[in-house]
Design a protein that fits this description.
Elements: E1 3-7, H1 12-24, E2 29-34, E3 51-55, H2 61-70, E4 75-78, H3 85-90, H4 93-116, E5 124-130, H5 155-174, E6 178-183, E7 185-187, H6 196-206, E8 210-213, E9 219-224, H7 225-238, E10 244-247, E11 252-254, H8 255-272, H9 276-279, E12 295-298, H10 313-319, H11 327-340, H12 342-350
Helix pairs in contact: 1-7, 2-4, 4-5, 6-8, 8-11
Length: 351
């Protein structure tokens, strides 16, 4: 039996990790530390018996020290972050506060409890980062590897880059046993409806426009969130302290292709699921029309990176990581989850 502290565990990726870990490691206890901002939702992990939710801020170093000591935690999995690029453009301060100062607070607490006061037992501080720290790729550039130079282009990605460097520094300076994974674009259940896939799915159901930045040809690598959780598990098990690993889905697609697939999946669902037209009468598909008629081009986002791509060779070779979901099946599963869990996302829209 092991005890984990999962920061941001009531958010999208963190919440999925709590569900995944509790299913695959049923004897472990999970302490979730989350301040329940707009993107954190206690209902995301409701019903997970192994998880205890503590509402608090990762910048509260004393609280983190207390949790590590009282629960005999030897593993921190650090998801907590401000992560929406658009919000970082209009309000960067929150990203510095949470992503940089918050990560430093966690590292200080871990160092004090595990190293300064600890018995020398094995421990792990695992930090979840993003491929956005590497900047933007040209059409023919090789995919991001673990040795790609950092070139962040938004306040969000700059704050994550800073946190990555802090994690590395605590390993090399103090001997804290850390690992970092840089992931590509996640999608799946419990995704807050401000990101592309859940936003477009829910807009399609209510007949609202599908706003496409620029020409819609920005390219991302799409990673089903359960595969990401599997990659983190592999890193905790096999990752070498002090090292970083790229976790991707192997599905490099332009946004327009993703949007077209969303439209097709919504149309398919209305054709296959009885009663869907009555539940969502404002959807074009409820009237026999194509969801794609909702596509609307809008002004491009400032500093919009053109292409991300992940080279996951190292994670496959050293961690044994292999994604198990292709985009077609992952997207269909995601859509059906939102259709089956309206009681989760409807209150979020009401906010």
């Amino acid at each position: 039996m092991a005890n984990l502290l999962v920061t941001g565990g009531a958010g999208f990726i963190g919440g999925n990790f709590v569900h995944y870990w509790s299913k695959t490691h049923p004897d472990d206890r999970v302490v979730v530390l989350d301040c329940l901002t707009y993107a954190g939702n206690a209902s995301t992990i409701a019903g997970v018996e192994q998880a205890e939710l503590v509402v608090g801020d990762i910048r509260d170093t004393d609280l983190v020290e207390k949790l590590l000591g009282e629960h005999d935690v030897a593993t921190i999995v650090h998801f907590a972050a401000e992560s929406h690029v658009d919000r970082s453009i209009t309000g960067p301060d929150a990203f510095i506060d949470t992503n940089v100062l918050g990560t430093n607070s966690l590292l200080k607490a871990a160092r004090k409890v595990w190293l300064d006061q600890g018995s020398g037992k094995a421990h792990r501080f695992h930090h979840i980062s993003t491929d956005e720290v590497f900047g933007s790729l040209g059409p023919s550039d090789p995919a991001f590897s673990e040795t790609t130079q950092y070139q962040p282009n938004s306040p969000y990605s700059a704050s994550k880059a800073a946190s990555d460097h802090l994690v590395r520094a605590y390993h090399h300076t103090y001997g804290l046993e850390v690992t970092t994974t840089n992931c590509s674009n996640n999608y799946g259940p419990y995704h807050y409806p401000e990101k592309l896939i859940p936003l477009f799915l829910l807009n399609a159901l209510s007949g609202k426009p599908l706003p496409i930045y620029g020409d819609g040809m920005n390219v991302r690598d799409w990673l089903y969130v359960e595969d990401h959780c599997r990659g983190i598990e592999a890193c905790l098990r096999n990752g070498k302290p002090g090292e970083t690993y790229n976790i991707g889905g192997g599905e490099e697609l332009p946004n327009m292709a993703v949007i077209d697939r969303i439209c097709a999946e919504v149309d398919r669902a209305f054709a296959e699921i009885e009663g869907l037209a009555q539940r969502y009468p404002d959807a074009p598909a409820a009237k026999g029309r194509a969801t794609s008629e909702l596509k609307t081009f809008v002004e491009d986002r400032k500093g919009h990176d053109r292409r991300y791509a992940i080279d996951e060779t190292r994670a496959r070779a050293e961690l044994g990581y292999v994604p198990q979901h292709d985009f077609e099946n992952g997207l269909r599963s995601t859509l059906r989850w939102y259709l089956d869990n309206e009681d989760w996302w409807r209150p979020l829209l009401a906010r």
